[in-house]
Amino acid sequence: MTDTNTEKKVRLGGMALPNGVLVHGPTSWACAVRREDGRLQVVSRRKRLRAEQVSSPLLRGPARLVEAFAVVPQAKRALPAARLPFQRPHVFAAFVASALAGRLVRTSRLRPAAAEAAAALLSLVPPLVALRGGELAAYHGAEHITIGSYEHGEPRPKEHERCGSHLIGPLLVTGALGNLGARRAPASLQKPARIAAVVASAAAATEIFRWMTAHPRHPLARALARPGHELQRRIATAEPSAAQLEVAEAALNACLELERDRDPADPPSGL
Fold this sequence. Notes:
alpha+beta, 9 helices, 4 strands
């Protein structure tokens, strides 16, 4: 694994796959998978879309979310052996079912606040279904252990303080409030209002998350992080095998190799 004592740390993110791990930094990404024949395969590329220079509080959160997901189709094209969580039929079915159920709830006789809260909770069904069974939860744990150990310079557990699960609480609240506000728009402006609500809720949630990671010992930050931590501990992650850790470390090292060779004109990165 990379020497953590002599290297300036790079801020990293990641995504677990059913057969591997995707790691991304400010300018690059790398994906490593375990093929069905047992071979380890790794690819790495520069990012086509980068959000690190976006400083507006309204835009930087959504921009970073778009950047993180934009590398997924790029990785899939470069590494066809990579399997995506939502490729599995039962996960896709859960996504469709939760979307339809959310639409029905919003048009039901429930009070608007209750309907939006219920719809927000239904949106959690697909990722929870994706994590049930298979190796995804273990690769999620491998991703956290590898990135966390690199960042802290010491062995870390399978739960990570910057996991997207910590966004769930803020997103549920800001999303419900945003959609509740969009309901009050005139009928002719409902669609634009909902789009604006999505952007605003994502921006607000990521700014809350940004504050949480900057003040991890604050009582409110710890309270907001608790649901995500428990979700990681109980459902979203599992203890990985040595072979799964090898895959995650291969992705991390390939990403760091590109980050070390980044264009000197790029702005500096760090924790």
